[in-house]
Write a sequence for this structure.
């Protein structure tokens, strides 16, 4: 066997899990009580703990981030068919949720500094049909929440943040979910904080929390009354227990991510042609992803670099590529060229392997391979 074949695989992410003992200890009481889902003890405990951790008045747990988006949209009483301004530089879930909830996505471009929604372009897209803005805190970089709020107030629009990447992020010492009407998080295994699958709807408006309580449970109010036509999006006790375990470690996980990100930057920022996004002012980060953008004059183009890394068993991701408007189910309704910055970045960006247990040796190996291909 030659050296190549011996090289172990480095994946772009790996879930952060408790020890088996810790998880078993957490689920014992579920077996004793035999209350396995429907707002049980673990569920209630996790909601309270997350309210505290995320520094927001109301947290409603749901089955996943996608259902959080759909239910958030349903909860706000916006005119059906209304237009929602969002970006195509996101996971397809964001756009799917808008359509599945009965609204029409309108794509706004992103900016070149942090790849979040280009606030300067929002007002041009507002029509009398516009009901909301649904921006994404991409990679954990926060949108310009203050300017978005001003635009929303001026035109009477709702603001829903897709904060799937932004767990634990703070802006001006406040939890990021304090901005907008609603923020949603994803607790999918690949995210900074996970409950295997899971998600949350966060809001400071108490009346939304009460409605979401029904909307995630078929719209049921009590045994004999149903108020809304809604799906099932409840989180069960076993996942809530996983969430409780993982919350104990999340600060350590974020710190480990920070150290890894520093190392990558130290090693790779000398390579001209590789751009890292800058630290945002006033933001306490979560280091969810590490995107690097390659300039078009690099020796090896993005796709070739990704293929070659794969040959060395290093799996990076083209994230986000393609942009949502290019997918088969969207391309007949949208033109990707209308968001030229998102389109351009999607062709040049990769996210590097990043998870708490990634060893420094592995980080060095990834950096060395990139250096070898682009510089040596
Ligand atoms: C992960 C993700 C979602 C969906 O969350 P799930 O928990 O996987 O359903 C939505 N939006 C963005 C930006 C995401 O990254």
């Amino acid at each position: 066997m030659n050296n190549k074949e011996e090289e172990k695989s480095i994946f772009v992410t790996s879930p952060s899990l408790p020890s088996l003992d810790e998880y078993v200890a957490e689920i014992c009481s579920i077996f004793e009580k035999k209350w396995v889902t429907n707002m049980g003890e673990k569920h209630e405990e996790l909601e309270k703990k997350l309210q505290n951790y995320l520094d927001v008045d109301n947290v409603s747990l749901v089955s996943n981030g996608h259902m959080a988006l759909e239910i958030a949209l349903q909860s706000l009483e916006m005119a059906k068919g209304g237009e929602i301004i969002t970006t195509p530089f996101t996971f397809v879930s964001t756009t799917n949720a808008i359509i599945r909830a009965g609204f029409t996505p309108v794509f706004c471009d992103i900016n070149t500094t942090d790849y979040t929604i280009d606030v300067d372009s929002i007002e041009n897209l507002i029509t009398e049909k516009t009901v909301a803005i649904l921006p994404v805190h991409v990679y954990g970089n926060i949108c310009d929440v203050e300017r978005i709020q001003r635009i929303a107030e001026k035109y009477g629009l709702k603001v829903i943040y897709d904060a799937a990447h932004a767990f634990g992020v703070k802006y001006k010492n406040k939890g990021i979910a304090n901005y907008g009407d609603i923020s949603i998080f994803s607790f999918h295994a690949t995210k900074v904080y996970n409950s295997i699958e899971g998600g949350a709807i966060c809001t400071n408006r108490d009346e939304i929390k009460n409605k979401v309580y029904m909307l995630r449970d078929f719209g049921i109010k009590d045994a004999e009354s149903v108020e809304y036509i809604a799906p099932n999006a409840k989180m069960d006790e076993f996942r809530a227990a996983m969430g409780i375990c993982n919350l104990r470690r999340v600060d350590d996980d974020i710190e480990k991510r920070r150290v890894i990100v520093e190392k990558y930057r130290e090693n790779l920022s000398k390579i001209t042609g590789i751009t890292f996004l800058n630290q945002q002012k006033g933001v306490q980060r979560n280091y969810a992803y590490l995107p690097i953008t390659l300039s078009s004059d690099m020796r090896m183009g993005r796709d070739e670099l990704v293929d070659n890394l794969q040959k060395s068993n290093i799996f990076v991701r083209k994230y986000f590529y393609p942009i949502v408007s290019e997918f088969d189910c969207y391309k007949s309704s949208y033109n990707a060229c209308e968001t030229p910055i998102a389109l351009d970045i999607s062709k040049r960006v990769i996210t590097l392997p990043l998870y708490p247990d990634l060893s420094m040796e592995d980080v060095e190996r990834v950096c060395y391979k990139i250096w070898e291909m682009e510089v040596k």
Q: What stands out?
A: The first strand starts at residue 58 and ends at 62. The chain has a mean pLDDT of 96. The longest helix spans residues 237-268. The chain is about 40% helix and 15% strand.
